[in-house]
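Person: I have long wanted to understand how a fold can be written as tokens. Underneath my words sits a plain record pairing an amino acid chain with its backbone structure tokens. Those tokens are not coordinates but codes from a learned vocabulary of shapes. I should like you to check that the lines agree and flag anything odd. The protein I mean follows directly.
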Amino acid sequence: MASSSFVLGLTYVVLMCMMVYAPLVADAAMSCGQVQTSLVPCIPYISNNGAGGVPPGCCSGIVAVNNAAKTTPDRRSICDCLKKAASAFTAVNPNVISGLPAKCNVNIPYKISTSTNCKT
């Protein structure tokens, strides 16, 4: 009998944690994985140091990421993801990466750079 009440109590605690945690996850902006997936079409443009035009899929991804950043915590989280992604392209002119939003007519409140302070 004691073990079944323990299991019932543990189940109750787990359900309560799920109820509290679920809205936090649902309200989050995009995960870093989603940000990266949205920006995959930009890789050829970045890898070629900005040669040629920006692919339309790249601009669509930038717009989607920007639209997901509705709150300050969302913007900070996405900024951190973009900062990490930018660091993967060490052999690329950083201005190519930081200039992408403007080329897609998207205004973001920070520069995409490995040195950007996403906390401010």
Q: What stands out?
A: The helical segments are 2-26, 32-39, 43-47, 56-68, 72-87, 94-98, 100-103. Residues 1-26 have pLDDT under 50 and may be disordered. Residues 2-26 form the longest helix (25 residues). The CA atoms of residues 29 and 67 lie 9 Å apart.
